[in-house]
Amino acid sequence: xxxxxxxxxxxxxxxxxxxxxxxxxxxxxxxxxxxxxxxxxxxxxxxxxxxxxxxxxxxxxxxxxxxxxxxxxxxxxxxxxxxxxxxxxxxxxxxxxxxxxxxxxxxxxxxxxxxxxxxxxxxxxxxxxxxxxxxxxxxxxxxxxxxxxxxxxxxxxxxxxxxxxxxxxxxxxxxxxxxxxxxxxxxxxxxxxxxxxxxxxxxxxxxxxxxxxxxxxxxxxxxxxxxxxxxxxxxxxxxxxxxxxxxx
Length: 248
Ligand SMILES: [Zn+2]
Prior knowledge:
This protein is α/β, with parallel strands linked by helices. The chain has helices at 3-8, 10-13, 19-28, 38-49, 83-92, 108-116, 128-141, 170-174, 185-188, 192-211; strands at 30-34, 54-58, 98-102, 120-123, 145-151, 154-160, 220-225, 230-235.
């Protein structure tokens, strides 16, 4: 790092758990962030500014006026534009690293390819089909997954790490059931700061996973309720019959 880079990262370097080594790990990291909505835009801001070497944003949606109260990288002038294009332009101003975009809803071979090219995947998507597909690809390719979800005032967060197989995967948690996919923001409502809180926590866990700081949520499910400002962590265990991460 040159002097300007050292100055940029100085507040992180001062953290004994991070130091120059942690900053270098962030600079070398390749992160795939799926979903550029309320969660994804909040996570992207902190991930980009933390100096992630290559941050790839994947989303096939365009900006709509209904997104603006919580999707913090977009404004009125961006309505109708592809989200990842607008997000990448905004992040380019504040990221020391490289921003790449995938302007489509990731699925099939493209999803596997994108996961394979990442050191870590952040799931900030808004549907269960994508969440299950990302989980399966991450387990298969042994890429750590930081998964976040938010609806109304509530959020949840978990880390699926190949280093802790005893905690299982996202599929273990839901037993293969796809809860009502109609439970989306458009139908159920969502509070902007709740999405921002969960997106920030997703970035926090991602930075911890990459740098090795602290204790990431490798074996827990973190549950947040913004209405009462309460949170708790449930211990996760692998489902021995899980078709995704089970022995078969
Ligand atoms: Zn599993």
